[in-house]
């Protein structure tokens, strides 16, 4: 399979890797620790960076209005230490996986393929990916598979932020192009104009993102690619994504 065709076929990583973010199990865990689901999202996802200022987290997340992110981050870390929240978030990932993915076939093979890709990614410049990829992987296949999806999701997200900067497009405008209906959810109240030059830069950033990750995904042969896609498709179907 052509490497770009294969990479584009893995797009469900984005949805599968986020399947536990606001799952009822995760929301319940947040409440048990004095947080709501939104605050655990910020603190749990960003907690791999450590007890840092909100500006640091904003640079790694990329798309949120900075004031919203600062309010969520600062109020959440007043309740729970960021690194503890990051580990709690991964525990939620593992729990959701064990609840839903036990009957998905081919997860061991998926994990082997996904680990090959993950181990080949250079974390330089990819702060959020570097943080989450440093956490130990779960031992059982369902939890390990979903965790790897989450890790690879952060790899593409982090690489895409690098590509946006290199392409001369702000993450704010990129988010408006990619997800125009989610502006208020991400804290934005303004609506800047998007021009054709902005859309061209966004397309260039998408292509550059593929180019940055291509060496890692190229480590898989045809058998590895098929194992990756079978496992990912099985997880996506289970989560009805």
Write the layout of secondary structure elements.
Elements: H1 3-9, H2 13-16, H3 24-32, H4 37-46, H5 54-61, H6 66-77, H7 82-100, H8 107-120, H9 127-133, H10 141-167, H11 171-178, H12 196-217, H13 222-238
Helix pairs in contact: 4-6, 4-7, 5-6, 7-10, 8-10, 8-13, 9-10, 10-12
In short:
The longest helix has 27 residues, at 141-167. This protein has 13 helices and no strands. Helices cover 68% and strands 0% of the residues.
Describe this structure in words.
With 241 residues, the chain is mainly α. The protein has one domain (3-238). The protein contains 13 helices and no strands. The chain has helices spanning 3-9, 13-16, 24-32, 37-46, 54-61, 66-77, 82-100, 107-120, 127-133, 141-167, 171-178, 196-217, 222-238. The longest helix has 27 residues, at 141-167. The protein is globular, with a radius of gyration of 18 Å. The two termini are 24 Å apart.
Labels describing this entry:
globular; 241 residues; mainly alpha
What structural class do the secondary elements suggest? Answer: mainly alpha
Total number of strands: 0
Provide the domain count. Answer: 1
DSSP strand (E) fraction?
under 5%
Uncertain ranges: none
- Could you report the average pLDDT, rounded to the nearest whole number? 96
Envelope shape: globular
SSE order in H/E notation? Answer: HHHHHHHHHHHHH
Number of helices: 13
Radius of gyration: 18 Å
Biggest sheet statistics: none
**Fraction of residues in H or I helices:** 55-70%
């Amino acid at each position: 399979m052509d490497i770009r065709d294969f990479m584009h076929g893995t797009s469900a990583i984005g949805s599968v890797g986020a399947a536990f973010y606001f799952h009822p199990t995760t929301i319940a865990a947040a409440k048990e620790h004095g947080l709501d689901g939104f605050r655990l999202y910020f603190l749990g996802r960003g907690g791999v960076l450590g007890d840092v200022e909100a500006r640091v987290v904003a640079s790694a997340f990329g798309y949120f209005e900075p004031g919203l992110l600062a309010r969520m981050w600062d109020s959440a870390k007043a309740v729970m230490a960021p690194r503890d929240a990051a580990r709690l978030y991964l525990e939620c990932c593992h729990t959701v996986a064990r609840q839903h993915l036990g009957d998905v076939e081919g997860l061991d093979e998926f994990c082997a393929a996904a680990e090959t890709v993950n181990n080949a990614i250079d974390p330089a410049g990819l702060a959020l990916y570097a943080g989450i990829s440093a956490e130990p992987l779960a031992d059982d296949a369902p939890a390990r598979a979903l965790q790897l999806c989450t890790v690879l999701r952060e790899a593409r997200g982090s690489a895409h932020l690098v590509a946006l900067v290199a392409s001369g497009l702000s993450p704010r405008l990129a988010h408006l192009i990619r997800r125009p209906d989610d502006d208020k959810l991400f804290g934005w109240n303004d609506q800047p104009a998007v021009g054709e030059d902005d859309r061209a830069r966004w397309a260039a950033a998408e292509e550059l993102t593929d180019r940055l990750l291509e060496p890692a995904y190229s480590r898989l042969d045809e058998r590895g690619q098929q194992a990756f896609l079978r496992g990912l498709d099985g997880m996506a179907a289970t989560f009805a994504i």
